[in-house]
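Quick question: what would this complex look like in 3D?
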Amino acid sequence: MADVPDPPERSLPARAWSLIAVPLGAIVLSLAVGAIVMILAEGLVTGRYDLTLPISAYRSLVLGAAGSGGALVSTVVQATPLVLTGLAVGICFKAGLFNIGAQGQFLMGALTAGAVGASLAHSGPLVAVTVALVAAAVVGALYGAIPGFLKAFTGAHEVVTTIMLNYIAIFTIAFLVAGPLRARGASFARTPDVGDAALPIIIGRDGHIGLLIALAAVPLAYWLLWRTTLGFEIRTVGANPEAARYAGMRPRRLIVMVMTLGGLLAGLAGAGEILGRAGFMPAAFTTNVGFDAITVALLGRAHPVGILLAGLLFGAMRAGANQMQIVAGVPSEMIDVLQGVILLFLAADIVVRRVFRLRTGRVGVSELQTVTRSYGEQASR
Amino acid sequence: MTEVVVAPALEMRGITKRYPGVVANDHIDLDVRPGEIHALLGENGAGKSTLMNILYGLAAPDEGQILLDGEEVRIAGPSDAIARGISMVHQHFMLVPVLSVAENILLGEETMANRLFLDRDEARRRIRGLGSQFGFQIDPDARVESLSVGWQQRVEILKALYREARILVLDEPTAVLTPQETREIFAMLRRLASEGHSIVFISHKLYEVLEIADRITVIRRGRVVGTTLPAETDEEDLAQLMVGREVQLVVDRGESRPGDPVLVVEDLRAKDDRGHETVRGVRFDVRAGEILGIAGVAGNGQDELVEALTGLRKPSSGKVRIAGRDVTGDGPRQLIRRGMAFVPGDRHRFGLVLSFPVEDNLVLTQYRDPPFARGLMRDDTAVRRYAERAMGEFDIRTPSSEVQAGTLSGGNQQKCVVAREFAGDVRVLILDQPTRGLDVGSIEFIHRQVVAKRDEGAAVLLVSAELDEVMEISDRIGVMYRGQLVALVDGPTADREEIGLLMATGGAGPRSEEAGTVEA
């Protein structure tokens, strides 16, 4: 018996505000926390507490990310894999799945792009690039499909299986790149150069074509989720898997499909990093893109446009980090602190609401329910 | 009337509570005397729950006072309310099934033997004492899941008494009880009242209110529209007062003209989630143009039966046919295509996606068909146009079709489900508790729609723990008891008491050799 009256109709700006208020608040608060951490970290070492340090640090961060054409390109390049993997995680959130495996899918895509690219290094750019990208997308998709199948048909939780698959990816790469795929004569374990498979540069020094892929993926994801019947099914399974079953949707099939799609996007992101930037696949590819993607997806509230914005923000931080380190002397790892604190405030959204006296919406970032829900395998029945 | 002046045990004066756009309570006055059973009647959304939430400290009134024994109090929260002797028994039991009676009663009110351990013996003693004080023996060590609904209800009331409640608020306490159980609970309530407890009794069932209440207060749209005595009113008056217009309590339905059997069920068996066979060889058919009602105390296999029929659960054996075609084991998708529509009992679990707008919910089972879909694409305009029409036809009160379904009142939510499932050509209509928790106005409306569907030639299966509902609109009535259909009788001539007895005991109807065993 809900005697609660129907709320009056809310305007579009009001609804948009209710979506972005908490993420914005989280960003502002994390910048404040970051400032305190900077002052303290510096002060505890040198004994001087410089209250203006955050100002110069953030100033150089902004300049490094957007102070020049080159800086902007660098921001976009950094944002590209974050947007793609962010979408990989975000679409899964929409289906009620927590894809921690974007990292593994990303790495497998990178490996495939490196291996296929190297073998097609002299086959002409069109063929080499196309085949390498498609191969990476397919392998990423398959790598995403594995936990999808396991969840749908055995009920194995995707969080557990994707974490395991992340490790499997790391060690598969280490084995293959150090062994059969290793470039002869290289000073460290890596694949041969991708040659013709290198992505064409379209803007600036390193603005490769992968950023167009990321940019195209955003409206495509939006279109899929909100304009197609498949998207309606995905969102229904995510919001209420029991109702989805009742309505004649097929949760198992959808789970496999969505995880596959997530893997495809993450795989493409990996390919972009190898074909567009590194030019080869190293045996130890140190990156956290697939994990940062989780924060990106949460900050963007699993909405493609939000993920684009969040990806750009994080990309900007990555791009500006060097300048911050050089100019202000604040280590670039500060960026990880900021990202971590943002995630913390998204989870503890009540703090954000209190600080900014927000009254919008009824619950916090609803995607977090997917993160915290560790069982509830109704969907796989 | 005023020879004896006793301060009311509870007095609420001029309680006003505004929500954005709505005044939920508009200067409501309510007084409950010591030892009185005071019924609170009102439609869904009339403001009963808001008023009781204010009393229980869950909401703060914008205006007005609350007085206990003549003294003004401010109730800060539920624990404050409990400390002041106010207790609430919710419609949905708040019991932990795997814990014992005593453990459930102790929850939140642990009596400690010392710093570390509960004083279970003391608790057991007090629970037994309370039981015998109110005329029944209860085993404090029985697991709650092993108790019937009627006994669970008693545990809820005991919980309140254990906390030394003087004012008891009962929110639809009889919603899931058999007539016999209801009578027993009523006896208990009368006894409580005679010992000086004050009881606020919330119900939609008018005849129950007339039977149990000392006084009746009716609220409509947030205002008190009358306080009356049972002797001075009747069901028709109360219904009219409640709804604000004349209400037909039992819809006219004319005689059914049944055609050929459409839904045929043969020796159906199904297991529950824990692997116990709870549907144990059920056989019936529903003909075109008739309503078959299945009565039964909740938990006698109805849930699994309905799920097995609607494709949500795989039957372990048996056959289901729709219009001659074998559909055993088909999923919801195929069944929907065969013309089955289903109003599920738990609208929050199955029937609606609460975070979705009303319009999406109105096409939840038809989204993949034209005009709502063209190929892969959704046609949002078609969805909206259809939703707006359905909202008008089914009187779904919401400011717009874009409002989240979760913000609607229970009655409006249910109308969304009904509007969706009753749309189009329905061959087989399965209704599981279609009016649970709804007020008389909404019930009347939904019953009319059911009868209309029947007259259009649909085969209607109505499963309900509310015997009244089954009695009122069924052309034939079956009783489900321990997973079997123990009786199948003609609807219009069925005897209420007899059906109630069958619900409670299974009667002498057809029983198989295993009917007597209780599942482990």
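Answer marked as accepted. The longest helix of chain B spans residues 179-194.
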